Amino acid sequence: MSELLTILVDADACPVKEEIYKVAFRHSVRVIVVANSYLRTPDHPLIERI
User: Each residue of 36-46: pLDDT tens digit?
Assistant: First the structure.
């Protein structure tokens, strides 16, 4: 996992979430997903939902 890079996503307004997940998995980059309500995210250790 890349400790130097973390992607923060405003999931309520982001139309390219799936593409972000694919790139993050490919490059082992942590993704923090911020949403106002429950949002389904991939069950993966690199994805954190707030």
Answer: 999 899 999 99
Residue 12: Cβ within 10 Å count: 11
CA 21 to chain CA centroid, nearest Å: 6
Are 48 and 33 in contact by the 8 Å Cβ rule? The answer is yes
Q: Give the whole-angstrom CA distance, residue 24 versus residue 5.
A: 10
> Whole-angstrom Cα distance, residue 1 to residue 15?
25
Give the H or E element holding residue 19: helix 17-27
pLDDT at residue 4 in the model = 86
